[in-house]
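Example (one chain per record):
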Amino acid sequence: MEEGPLFADGVALLPRSRITFTDPAIHARSVGERERGEREIAAIIAERSGRDASDLDARCAAAAIIALFTTLALFVDSRPVTVRS
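Predicted structure:
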């Protein structure tokens, strides 16, 4: 597999990802930020679909987006990374 700029970005994010999931204080703050982001994404989805920001479909879609990124971060964090020079 070719290692391009996205691979380099992922490698650069690994230390931050690891500390976010392992340090209790940082993890708690991260959860709060994810919730804030979820509300903002739900508001955008609702606005673009002509719904209220509290609409269940908009909130579920936002939650799914946040869950996808969280799952990807945990997956990448669990894999060994080898960087070729």
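Caption: DSSP finds three helices and no strands in the chain.
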